[in-house]
Amino acid sequence: MQKITPIILSNSIDIVRGGLTKAMFTRANTLARKFNKVVILTFSFQQNHKEIIEEIYNKGLLNRNIEVHNMFVDLNSHKERHKKSEVNKSANEKGFIVFKDEKQKTNSSYRYYKNGFYVKYKRFDQQGNVLFIDYMNEGRHRTRREEYNKQGYLVRTRHMDITINKPSIDRYFDNKGKCYATIWIDPKTGKTGRVNVFDKTPKEFKSMESLKKSWVEKKIKKIKTPVIMTDKRDMDKLALKLGHNNLKRVAVVHNNHFKKPFDNTAEIKKNYMTLFDNLNHFDKVVFLTEEQKEDVEHLFGNDNNNLTVIPHPAKHVTHDVRKEVEYNPYKAVTLARYVEQKRLDEAIEAFKFVVEKIPSAEYYIYGFGKKKDNLQQLIKRLRLQDNVKLKEFALDASAIYKSAACSILTSDYEGFGMVLTESLSAGTPVVTYNSKYGPSDIVRDEVDGFVVPKGNKEELANKIVKIMENKDLRKKLSIKALDVKTRFSLEDYTKRWNELISSI
Fold it and tell me: Is the pLDDT of residue 220 over 80?
């Protein structure tokens, strides 16, 4: 067998993460047990990339033998500082009148005035480190933002288009305070343009995509057989353009490829067309469910017989639900990002019916995302403040599931629904919409949970009430839920991925 190196392309990885990043971590950890070298290449700028990756290793989310490289870290050629931090870490500054921004609840932020003019805005993290400083002109327009790492060093300056308050030029600074890269940005669209890299041999790239291609090709140049894996569709075009005599390509499809209403009656999402138009140029295309694979085969064919299915494995949880377990029989939970796709508004509206029948019922939603304020307003409007609580993202999903009578999933669409297997692995039944794809493959209706028609909030509520009011039913569903560990076993997942990578 040729020396194979699995390489995952990702914009970024972080501690607070969704299901797709979890899936990448699981695959990387699995492959690292067979292959000598597994690499994750990331492209997004992160102020504190080194600390983030170290925390990921420390928490055991990634094995330390998995290499993580970042494009911006590599472009930064100077690794040591030769001067002290210049940023003022104090909220108060001599010569300025300072006002605290009371609207900011998570981080401390301050406005600075001089001679009557509002001249800058400074935000600190919860540890007192400066996150960024915004500078204003006399018209109160933001002219630039300076971003700092935890050591207090300037790492990026964003120069703003003062008419629409969006970045137009980004400059990146190395560990000696010198600019090592400049990127032009269209402030109206956010799309990047020309890129200049100032190293020993300065280079100019027509686009960020050209820089990414150059960087990846440099990273894989000495690898005998690189297997490039793309998990997000914005990476497919990059993978197709890479040059290497023995390069292999694997695309993994994590989500529904249809536009609204997210079923076979709809058009294909635009960002999937690069993949679907080039199916034969990928050595393997991996789906999470047979249903999605069949849908794609029906639309685009499978001439090279390169489409396959490898579902996510169920997480192993040490837990015997046959014994008495301390859980709240009137509590339901959801772990999800606060985004429109998850339709948490419908879950909350359905829970209004639950509370009407069981006034003490509780619904805890754990996550993060831009729709949090909207959801909080909905909770208030429905007068469910005592029953429905929005919680922060949680790492220990198993403990949360174990605490509840059931979990709820109301997504408009999924690619698999990893939260379903996580809930069942903890012995917690699931009440879910029957959306594409995953719920009907994972949850067995009336065996380990309930699958209801998508959008039927009243039926969803009725099934939740049924579980909460009938402890014997809940126990029966809980025992059957544990079958998920054999139905979606880690052993089978490991075998399939090892065979796939080894055979291409």
Answer: yes
Nearest to 431 by CA among 486, 325, 354, 326: 354
Spatial separation of the C-alpha atoms in residues 4 and 8, rounded to whole Å: 13
CB 56 within 8 A of CB 24: no
Q: Answer for the pair 421, 409: CB distance below 8 angstroms, yes or no.
A: no
CA–CA distance, 450 with 424 (Å, rounded to integer): 12
Q: Hey, is 227 helix, strand or coil? A: strand
Residues 251, 273: Cα–Cα separation, whole Å: 13
What does the DSSP assignment read for 335-384? E--SSGGG-HHHHHHHHHHHHHH-TT-EEEEE--STTHHHHHHHHHHTT-
- The reported pLDDT for the residue numbered 323 is 46
Nearest one of 384, 389, 375, 387 to 338, comparing CA atoms: 375
Sole residue written with tokens 């508004």: 345
- Please state, in angstroms and as integers, the Cα–Cα distance from residue 497 to each residue in 65, 311, 415, following that order: 18, 10, 18
Which of 55, 49, 290 shows the shortest CA–CA distance to 172? 49
| Residue 375 tokens, joined | 């959801």
The pair of structure tokens assigned to 451 is 């699958």
Degrees to nearest 5, angle at CA 300 with 294 and 302: 70
pTM for the structure as a whole: 0.89
Q: For 373-389, what is the mean pLDDT?
A: 97
| pLDDT, position 324 | 46
Strand spans (E) along 434-488: 449-452
